[in-house]
Structure formats: C-alpha cells, structure tokens
Specification:
With 320 residues, the protein is mainly alpha-helical. It has 12 helices and 2 strands.
C-alpha cells in the first residue's frame, strides 16, 4: 500500500485514539458530578445503539437483519464483551487515575494471545512469554507493590476486570469472523450494543435513571473556572467519545492493517494520562509512568507472537 495511504490510516487512527483518550476525562467528570458508573455505562451504550441503528437504517439496512441462531451468541457478546467492559472501566476511573485504568484494561491483548495459544492451539512464538513477563513487571511498578500495593483495590480489580471483559469482546469477535457467514462489522457493533443496552434496561430500568443529575453543571478543567452542563459532557461522550472515533477506526482500517493500528492505539493511555493531568490534576509518579510504558511494550510484544494470523480488525478497537 502507498506510503501516503498508510499515513492517512495512521492519522485517522491516532485521531480516534485521542478522542477515546479525551473521553476518559469527560466520563470521569460526569461520574464526579454524581452519575454512577452503572447509569453512565447504560447511557453510553444505549445512545450509541440508537444512533448506530439510525445510521444502519440509512446506509446499510441489511445490517439490521439477524438470524435466530445468532441471538444467543450476540447476547453473550453484548453483555460480557460490551456492557461489562464499559461498566468496569467506569468503575476503575471512579477509583484510580484514568491513565492507570487504561493501562490495566490494555493488558487485554495479552489474554487474547494466551487464548490463541491454549484455547485455539494456534502456533505462537515464545516471545509471548517475554511480553507477559514485561507486562507483569510493569504492573508491579504501576501498583508500586513495594509500598504495599498503593492502588485503590476496587479500581485495580475493576481495571483488570475490564481487561478480561475486553478479551471476551475480542475472542468472540474473532470467532464471528471465523464463521462461514460472518456478520458485517457494522451489524456486529450495532447488535452488540443492542444486547448491552437491553441488559442494562433490565438491570436498571429507565424510570430509575437520574435525569436530574444532567441538569447540573461541571467544571471540566480544574484550573479554568468555566462550567458546562453535564448533559453537554454526556453528549460529547456519546458522539465524539463513541460514534465518531468508532467510525474513524473503521475507516482507518481501509488503509492500515489491524496490527499497525493496534500499535498506534497504544498511545491512548499516554494521551489520556496527559489530558487527565491537565484537566483533573491526576499525577502519576515517575515509577508508574515507567511501569505503564513497560506494560504497553509487553502487550505489543505479546500481540506479535502469533505466527499465522493477522489480528482481526476488531482487535484494533480499544474503546473507552
């Protein structure tokens, strides 16, 4: 592929990663204003589903059609892979800095690599163990274990839980691509969000939703005395923090391979840490910064341990 086309792909994916990174701070501001991670996850997933359904109905009506035998699989994909990833990530950023939460969640490709080795029994280079060792060392630095584990335990468990849920998202997405008649990527995303939205509607009926909280105001940047309505932040989260970056990822994958995209995606925790520092005053220690870099490098090494397969497009989408 021409270098200019690759540059377009890299630029689009970097823009998507930046929007996802900004969304971490936006979501944390909404949570700090009094909206629980559960309700925020419900709002994001449901609103994204409705917008995607409108888009699909206009540009690709075929994406709205499903076979009955696909429903159980999509239910698991939507609840465990979509709803739980989002909820656990929000619980994590409620309790620990946004950058650290993302670093924990970004260990998901390690679990994916191990799944392909032991679950699918696919050939895997021994570098997977190097990547795993690097990630573990990096996590110990992030947690500063010599100080008796300095991270909030709820936040740390939620961050690693988000990584496990994201692993389900990747593995089930890959399994769908292996089927004789795989779902279109738009349909897969749309119905995954639909299942997640239905799950939350059952667990937390909409009449319990705290709409009054969105009438309040929040100060997105601590050092700048400017307040914006919480509903404005929520709109950003859905449109510029979900729909637009998802679309940018899909378009970018026309120009670059998923493995190249995932390498660019690793910049997201770094960008998110900088934004959270500037907006929220969240400061990471030098040791934690080094540990985070070691984790991300270990993840990249592990991702490239698979011998025969290019990671599917869904593995390039680390959505926050």
């Amino acid at each position: 592929m021409p270098r200019s086309n690759r540059a377009v792909g890299y630029a689009l994916y970097l823009l998507a990663a930046t929007l996802f990174a900004i969304n971490g701070t936006v979501a944390k501001e909404i949570i700090l204003s009094g909206v629980s991670p559960t309700f925020l996850s419900q709002l994001r997933i449901t609103a994204a589903f409705l917008l995607l359904a409108i888009v699909a109905a206009i540009v690709k009506p075929a994406a709205l059609r499903l076979r009955a035998r696909q429903l159980p699989w999509l239910a698991v994909y939507g609840v465990l892979g979509v709803a739980m990833t989002q909820w656990l990530y929000f619980v994590a950023i409620e309790n620990i800095p946004v950058g650290l939460a993302l670093i924990l969640e970004f260990t998901a490709p390690l679990f994916v690599a191990l799944w392909f080795r032991f679950g699918y029994r696919e050939p895997t280079r021994n570098t997977v163990w190097l990547g795993l060792a690097m990630a573990l060392i990096g996590l110990m630095l992030v947690a500063q274990v010599w100080q008796g584990f300095s991270l909030n335990p709820i936040g740390a468990i939620a961050g690693l839980g988000a990584a496990c849920a994201l692993t389900v998202y990747y593995v089930l997405g890959d399994a769908q691509l292996r089927r004789p008649h795989p779902l279109d990527p738009l349909a897969l995303t749309l119905w995954g969000f639909a299942a997640g939205a239905l799950f939350w509607a059952i667990v937390r009926p909409w009449w319990l939703f705290p709409w009054q909280a969105f009438a309040e105001s929040a100060q997105p940047v601590d050092a700048v005395p400017v307040e914006v309505p919480v509903w404005g932040l929520a709109t950003w989260m859905v449109v510029l923090g979900t729909i637009v970056p998802f679309w940018l990822v899909v378009v970018s994958l026309r120009f670059i391979r998923a493995s190249q995209a995932s390498a660019i995606g690793m910049t997201e925790p770094l960008i998110a840490s900088f934004i959270a520092w500037a907006a929220l005053g969240e400061v990471l220690s030098p040791v934690q910064i080094v540990g985070g870099l070691v984790v991300l490098l270990g993840v990249l090494v592990a991702e490239r341990s698979r011998v025969n397969a290019e990671p599917p497009a869904s593995e390039a989408v680390l959505w926050e």
